[in-house]
Amino acid sequence: MIIAIDGPAASGKGTVARALAAHYGLPHLDTGLLYRAVGAAALERAVPFEDAQALAGLASVLDVAALDAEALRAGPIGEAASRVAVVPAVREKLLRLQQDFAHQPGGAVLDGRDIGTVIAPDADIKIFVTATPEARAARRHRELRERGEDVSFAEVLADIARRDARDSGRSSAPLIEAQDAVRLDNTALDRDASIARALAIVAARLAGR
Ligand code: DC
Fold first, then answer.
1. For 50-105, how does the pLDDT look when each residue is reduced to its tens digit (9 = 90+)?
2. For the whole model, what pTM was predicted?
3. What domain count does the chain have?
4. Residue at 208 is within a domain
5. Domain that holds residue 7
6. Ligand 1 pocket: which of 29, 72, 82, 128 to mutate (most atoms <8 Å of CB)?
7. d(C-alpha 104, C-alpha 157), whole Å
8. Is residue 15 part of a domain?
9. For residue range 98-135, what is the model confidence (pLDDT) as tens digits?
10. Burial of 97 (0-12, 13-18, 19+ CB in 10 A)
11. Is the CB of residue 39 below 6 angstroms from any atom belonging to ligand 1?
């Protein structure tokens, strides 16, 4: 069973994906980490975001087993990830790896922006997790403050708006809801309610097969 979870920044899609993976005993890939790793490497080596060839080079030597999820989730890396993600050559380099992960025997759960549309259009279940920009910014703000990052709500909201515009407006594999995705708007839901709703969506889909 392949479960594809897509949605905008800070929508809680990672939480939902991890919970579904644990529940069904499936491997999980947070594909945002791949773009974050390329973005972090670009920042570290001062590679310009306009240099598509150099960025694709960074993507092609990515060591997926060595990704430090905690470090890659730090504030400025999200913006860098969103910038390298507009580069078609970067997406191309990361495509095969994600497709192979999705199509491993027994299935998998993947979350990102283009899982249901590009990586695994054949996924058994597609969920589009979303919430208002304000609700997402409030969550991300709380998260960053808990990590000790000194950032205002207004800055976080502006960052989310900028990333939404870039992720949805790019020409290569933009963030769009797959036609056959079930939408999970968790603006008014807490973490547990959001997970419960996702589990119900999958159970209903499996029952209807
Ligand atoms: O989900 P995230 O915030 O960790 O993702 C970081 C950036 O990576 C996001 O702004 C866009 C990009 N991304 C993408 O283009 N396609 C994916 N499947 C996952 C992430």
1. 999 999 999 999 988 889 998 998 778 988 999 999 999 999 999 999 999 999 99
2. 0.95
3. 1
4. no
5. 2-203
6. 82
7. 37
8. yes
9. 999 999 999 999 999 999 999 999 999 999 999 999 99
10. middle
11. no
